[in-house]
Inverse folding.
């Protein structure tokens, strides 16, 4: 038997969800059998949907060896560190995700991900102890595509993850800005408001009129930063956070992101690949501004975090810039 005291990292979640995290190697059918027969909360039987509170005591009447074997499956494999730290305190870690690295694992790559690298880093410096954490794992609150670089924020405890997610869900609490280079001369601010429908089979989205009933609303603001001849360096601010939002929205507006094989211009992509070796979208999450902090993160209000263009993207920008200057 094991007795577990619920802390802030485990509170405010259903009993069955807690057990699924605490015993990840145990079949779901056994989890619910345990709830019915072999789990007590504060000395009493509790329903699967009982909401755990800080200070509750959960008793699991299961063989200790099986509990330990199940919990060992929560240990994340170590992965070499590729990220750079932008900001860190007791609640939050903000890092720069490099090109080619997944934020989370997928069916093809489960070990070398940004999330695993961060977990390994926090475990090594003592900020996270998998054995003591019971069910909590530090987690990213925003996500970038594999080939998009830039800022990703992690919560180092359950309260920080919960509060940061609440800030992101509330429009205007957190502003996220990206730098991209698009086809064409963009001379004024674009305020884009449409709907999107995701095609999961092809992993792409279709852009539909905002006044339609189908799809999810997406809003994007694009501001020209610098003319690069036939191209424009653009700052993009997301008002919503949809799949492929910037790439699909800018392509629909007639200014596709350079290098974007899914939504971009083939002739442009052929040129940028030949000239600069660019084979994926030019997209960098470069600034995050906290307009209002929530709960445990109230002290972050007014904070701004920034990440400069990585060297390969800076080289492409400067190459296009030189090409424009040579024409003058």
């Amino acid at each position: 038997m094991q007795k577990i005291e619920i802390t802030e990292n485990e509170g405010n979640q259903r009993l069955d969800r807690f057990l699924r995290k605490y015993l990840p190697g145990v079949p779901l059918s056994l989890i619910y059998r345990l709830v019915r027969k072999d789990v007590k909360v504060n000395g009493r039987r509790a329903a699967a949907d009982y909401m755990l509170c800080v200070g509750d005591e959960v008793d699991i009447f299961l063989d200790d060896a099986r509990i330990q074997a199940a919990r060992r499956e929560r240990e994340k494999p170590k992965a070499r560190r590729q990220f750079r730290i932008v900001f860190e305190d007791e609640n939050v870690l903000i890092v720069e995700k490099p090109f080619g690295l997944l934020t989370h694992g997928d069916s093809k790559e489960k070990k070398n991900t940004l999330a695993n690298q961060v977990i390994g880093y926090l475990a090594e410096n003592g900020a996270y102890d998998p054995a003591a954490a019971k069910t909590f794992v530090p987690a990213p609150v925003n996500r970038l595509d594999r080939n998009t670089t830039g800022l990703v924020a992690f919560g180092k405890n359950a309260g920080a993850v919960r509060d940061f997610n609440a800030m992101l869900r509330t429009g205007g609490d957190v502003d996220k800005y990206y730098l991209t280079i698009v086809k064409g001369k963009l001379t004024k601010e674009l305020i884009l408001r449409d709907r999107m429908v995701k095609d999961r089979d092809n992993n792409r989205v279709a852009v539909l009129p905002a006044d339609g009933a189908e799809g999810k609303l997406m809003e994007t603001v694009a501001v020209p930063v610098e003319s690069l001849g036939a191209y424009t360096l653009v700052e993009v601010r997301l008002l919503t956070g949809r799949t492929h939002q910037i790439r699909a929205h800018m392509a629909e507006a007639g200014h596709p992101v350079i290098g974007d094989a899914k939504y971009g211009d083939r002739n442009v992509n052929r040129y940028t690949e030949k000239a600069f070796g660019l084979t994926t979208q030019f997209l960098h999450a470069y600034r995050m501004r906290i307009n209002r902090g929530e709960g445990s993160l109230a002290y972050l209000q007014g904070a701004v975090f920034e990440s400069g263009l990585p060297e390969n993207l800076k080289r492409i920008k400067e190459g296009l810039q030189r090409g424009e200057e040579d024409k003058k």
